[in-house]
Design goal:
By secondary structure, the protein is an alpha/beta fold. Helices cover about 40% and strands about 20% of the residues. It has two domains: about 140 residues, Nucleotidyltransferase, domain 5 (2-Layer Sandwich); about 130 residues, 2-Layer Sandwich (Nucleotidyltransferase, domain 5).
Length: about 350
């Protein structure tokens, strides 16, 4: 147990949300997120618009996080920021701000892998709440618009990717479903909402056959495309008349794919501590299935609160906290990394 209270300022700017958070040891003192609505009209994140919005948002967001936490910048022990992966322009705004703040205050920098932040988010503690954390080792199903992985977590900075997508991410599959059906962006929440009203057994799609713990989602997207094409040839109003059933069936298929490999991983590793993380972990159907499978199979499951599913600085701060404790500091010469090799 650390005797001194360590205060970490976290900064997250990997995509289109500007976020800052303050942690006092593992406890969340504040979390502020400025989202960007401008991208919806384009059907996806526009990198140039995202970086400009970060430039406008980062100072007020950090200032608000410090004030809500009741601390000054002089009381911060370190500045943790997202070094990658993500959009280069967005990352550079957070990186430049963190470096400038470090130079002006002489506070050390801690560089955080955005994905590792998602994995370690179950360790964020909150005041006046029951805080349960996983025991090592545990398995994380990391699901987002850009990544789909099963990660074996042996320690705070000992990660082993045992399964990954060989093509597209599951979040991309949700977005593509929404786009094919003309439902809007971001697609995941729209599909999830409609799926609650539909019959998940109404439509059938071809599921991938991939060895081991790896995933594939390109085939099921193609299956959906051909399914809609064939149905529209018979009834031009098919999507509008059946959109809830289509969404429910497609969502169930994606969740079936995810859970099949996760269940296999728990059986073969013998690990019964299971968490989910990333933007797709906000999906209500996935959350329900994880909880159901956990109860049936004797897992201890860790499902993040909705505020920790999206990109947020609290996960950057908790990751930075454990790096700070072991003296793993960053250099001013470090550059933003859009993609990690593994």
């Amino acid at each position: 147990m650390n005797s001194k209270e360590v205060i970490i300022l976290g900064i997250e700017s990997s995509c289109d949300d500007t976020s800052a958070a303050v942690l006092k040891n593992e406890y969340l003192a504040s979390s502020v997120i400025a989202s960007q609505s401008v991208h919806a009209q384009w059907g996806g994140v526009v990198p140039e618009l995202a970086s400009r919005a970060h430039q406008a948002n980062i100072v007020p967001v950090v200032d608000t996080a410090l004030k809500q936490a009741g601390v000054t910048i002089d009381q911060i022990d370190a500045i943790a920021y997202t070094v990658g992966p993500g959009l280069l322009g967005s990352l550079l705004v957070g990186t430049s701000f963190a470096k400038g703040l470090s130079v002006s205050t002489s506070k050390p920098l801690v560089q955080v892998n955005h994905l590792q932040g998602h994995i370690l988010s179950p360790f964020i503690k909150q005041y006046n709440k029951e805080n349960n954390t996983p025991d090592f080792p545990f398995l994380t199903l990391l699901v987002s618009g850009g990544h789909t992985q099963i990660v074996k977590v042996n320690d705070f900075y000992d990660f082993q990717i045992i399964g990954t997508t060989i093509d597209d991410a599951v979040g991309e599959a949700f977005d593509k479903c929404s786009k094919m059906m003309g439902l809007g962006y971001p697609g995941g929440p729209i599909v999830d909402k409609l799926a609650k009203e539909g019959d998940p057994l109404k439509c059938k799609f071809n599921l991938p056959k991939v060895d081991g713990y790896d995933y594939s989602f390109s085939g099921i997207k193609t299956s959906l495309l051909y399914f809609l094409r064939d149905q529209l040839a018979v009834n031009e109003n098919f999507i509008e008349e059946n959109k809830a059933d289509i969404c429910a069936s497609f969502q169930k298929s994606l969740i079936d794919i995810l859970l099949k490999k996760l269940i296999l991983a728990t059986k073969q590793t013998g690990i019964r501590e299971v968490s989910i993380g990333g933007g797709v972990s906000a999906n209500s159907g996935l959350r329900e299935r994880i909880a159901e499978e956990g109860e049936k199979r004797g897992w201890r499951t860790f499902i993040p609160e909705f505020k920790f599913t999206t990109d947020n600085a609290a996960m950057i701060a908790i990751s930075g906290y454990y790096k700070y404790l072991k003296g793993d500091f960053g250099e001013l010469t470090a550059t933003a990394i859009t993609r990690f090799s593994k």
